[in-house]
Amino acid sequence: MNDKQASYRLTRRSALWSAVALIFAVTGLLRFQAWASPEVEKALEGLIGSKRPEVSPLLKLHLPEYAFDGSRVPFSVEVESPMTESDYVRQVHVLSERNPFPRIATFHFTPRSGRAFARTRIRLAMSQNVIVVAELSDGSVLTNSKWIEVTLNGCKED
Amino acid sequence: MVTPTIRVKSPTEAKRGSLVEIMTLISHPMDTGLRKDKEGKVIPRNIINKFLCVYNDELVFKAELHEAISANPLIQFNFVAEQSGTLELIWHEDGGQVYTTTRELRVL
């Protein structure tokens, strides 16, 4: 094997690998974009088992872009759903990527809820993604996330 | 332990089948168990860990709360009013204490 051949084979191999990497990167972005930290992954495993949530725009997080004080961040979540006996949102889990404890809250809904909406105020330790995971009555799991900039740590305030 | 103050914003009347909005506030420190007092001792965890809304003995909304919920937790949610009845709001604190309040809702 001469040098020219070797370099050609290397290029083709690297080209193939980059194609494979690109596919993984794209699917990875779609599937795993929502939870980047191992704590979140662990917490999610306890909540939804081995199911892989799908990123969906049906989940809407209302969170400011920027919060000075992380101890009281207004937060609300809404899942677009008809909320009928056959098609409704069972649970919505709220998780944080970089708080000392990954779980923030879980809201349980019934068809009587009429609207899969909940509002509260949350504590955030630093700038991070806030993740919501919704479990629907048909067994499917959806997720979405939003980045928020936080200046003051809301978990250790006096 | 100070008894928490509870504030509830809920309509007294609603049309049948309409969406009712309930907003609740309870005064509570929501101690995470991470903070320390002036002597450097860790303040033990004491949070409201569960909130329930029961309407005519039917559970219409439940929230599991963790350390990352702010002090004086605010919770707002909706449900569909089908018939007149009593709305029971229940807060569960760490250590087993339960705080409840009721509101009447008249469905027209």
Number of strands of chain A: 9
CATH superfamily of chain B: Immunoglobulins
Helical amount among residues of chain B, as a percent range? under 10%
Q: Uncertain spans of chain B, ≥5 residues at pLDDT below 50?
A: none
CATH superfamily annotation of the largest domain in chain A: SoxY domain
What integer value in Å does the Rg of chain A equal?
20 Å
Tally of structural domains of chain A: 2
Spatial strand arrangement across the major sheet of chain B = 2-8-7-4-5
**Oligomer, anyone?**
heterodimer
Query: What's the helix count of chain A?
Result: 2
Q: What is the first-to-last residue Cα distance of chain B?
A: 41 Å
CATH topology of the largest domain in chain A: Immunoglobulin-like
CATH topology of chain B: Immunoglobulin-like
Keywords:
heterodimer, A: 158 residues, alpha+beta, 2 domains, 26% helix, 37% strand, B: 108 residues, mainly beta, Immunoglobulin-like, 3-stranded antiparallel beta sheet, 0% helix, elongated
What are the SSEs and their pairings?
The complex is a heterodimer of chains A (158) and B (108).
Chain A lengths: L2 H30 L5 H11 L5 E2 L3 E4 L3 E4 L3 E7 L9 E8 L6 E6 L7 E7 L5 E9 L4 E12 L6
Parallel strand pairs in A: 1-9, 3-9
Antiparallel strand pairs in A: 2-4, 4-7, 5-6, 5-8, 8-9
Chain B lengths: L5 E4 L3 E2 L4 E8 L21 E8 L2 E8 L8 E7 L4 E9 L4 E10 L1
Parallel strand pairs in B: 2-8
Antiparallel strand pairs in B: 1-3, 3-6, 4-5, 4-7, 7-8
Précis, in short:
The complex is a heterodimer of chains A (158) and B (108). Chain A is α+β, with helices and mostly antiparallel strands and 158 residues long.
Describe the overall structure.
The complex is a heterodimer of chains A (158) and B (108). By secondary structure, chain A is an alpha+beta fold. In chain A, 26% of the residues lie in helices and 37% in strands. Chain A folds into two domains: 1-32; 36-152, Sandwich (Immunoglobulin-like). In chain A, the strands form two sheets. In chain A, strands 1, 3, 5, 6, 8 and 9 form a six-stranded mixed sheet that branches. The model of chain A has no long low-confidence stretch (mean pLDDT 83). Chain B has one domain: Immunoglobulin-like (Sandwich). In chain B, the strands form two sheets. Chain B has a five-stranded mixed sheet, with no helix packed on it. The termini of chain B are far apart. Chain A binds chain B through residues 71-73, 76, 96, 99-101, 103-110, 112-115, 117-124, 154-158, and chain B through 19, 23, 32, 34-35, 55, 58-71, 73-80, 82. Strand 6 (103-108) of chain A pairs antiparallel with strand 5 (58-65) of chain B, so a sheet runs across the interface.
